[in-house]
Amino acid sequence: MKFDPASEIQDHHVFGEFGGVNPSITDSSTFTFLKPDTMNELFDHEIEGCFLYSRHWNPSNKYLSEALSKMEGTESAQVTASGISAIACTILQICKHGDEIISSRTIYGGTWALFKNILPRFGINVKFIDVTNLETLKESINESTKLIYCETLSNPLLDVSDIPSLSNIAKENNLKLVVDNTFSPMVVTPYKLGADVVIHSMTKYINGASDCVAGCICASQNFINELTDINNGMTMLLGPVLDSFRSSSILKNLNTLHVRMKQHSKNAKFISENLDKLGYNIFYPGLNAHPQHKLMKTIMNADFGFTGMFGVDVGSLKNAEFILEEMQNEKIGYLAVSLGYYKTLFSLPGSSTSSEIPEDEQNKMGLSPGIIRFSIGLDNDIERTFNRIKKCLEKLN
Ligand code: PLP
To answer: Which pTM does this prediction carry?
Structure first.
């Protein structure tokens, strides 16, 4: 039967402490025990329904984590204070000194910098490759390799990862497959396709309001238990705990994610198709000409479109800077990094969210300085938005 993340969230019934339709917000960092021996027991292992200390678990974070595990079809999940801490904790939980990671070359610049500059300090080496080339991937694996890392839809070029094939290669070589699904919540369900760990920056689509930073890790119960282990767990001991008030507001927003993803995708498809007709070089997996369009159709959940993100190459940095300013003046959206907001955001990845990546690496991944990244908003009249974008582009001639 086809997996429907929206129905999974819909059927996830939670009753608040006093029967409220929204669960109560936990406003406590620590929790009482009626008897000291229960406290000892809880330090040894989790007891259903009991809480110890909010950095470990609290009810608000549990509610949101449970809903996220439903959406991603995993046994369990844990929320974190940012997407990047979710990535760092996952990697450090799996890898130790001397291990190697094979990572996609086209990933978010912050993740790239973490992998390139921070992990080697802990003796963890990262090899960056083109993961759409499965032969290169197989050749890159050696006895130190511990995990394969990729984004479902890469930031910012929208390359599509062949998760089922990556998972087969990972399993054959006893590796973990870790997938960042930030660009495609509901659109793709990587765990169902064989990924071991699925990560989100909830700062983006899941929350959808650009009013906070948050992340999550969705995985097996075993892995989440490892992360939260009092003696050896990375989320417990590095401490990127999400505030309960934020957890509670993100949970409410999660319930409208399916409607938002449909509209973001519908709007992005309309704009990218029409810019394509005008002859622009577009990076959008919903276009027939996208190199992994067919693959995308085989891995996506049909109802949520191809995501609300796309890139367009306007030829040069100078052109791109001119267009960005014009578009902001035309009220098409905001010149800002980040994505998944209800209004349109646009930026130049080469000099912002991917600026951590040196020029030669940017060239290898095909990221040229004239590429504008769009996160298309929930605009009701998308034809009006397209006409405004067209008007700005025409000013270049
Ligand atoms: N993953 C992707 C694909 C991102 O785009 C980002 C941020 O832009 C992150 C992870 C990091 O998330 P956060 O900013 O929530 O730490």
So the answer is: 0.97
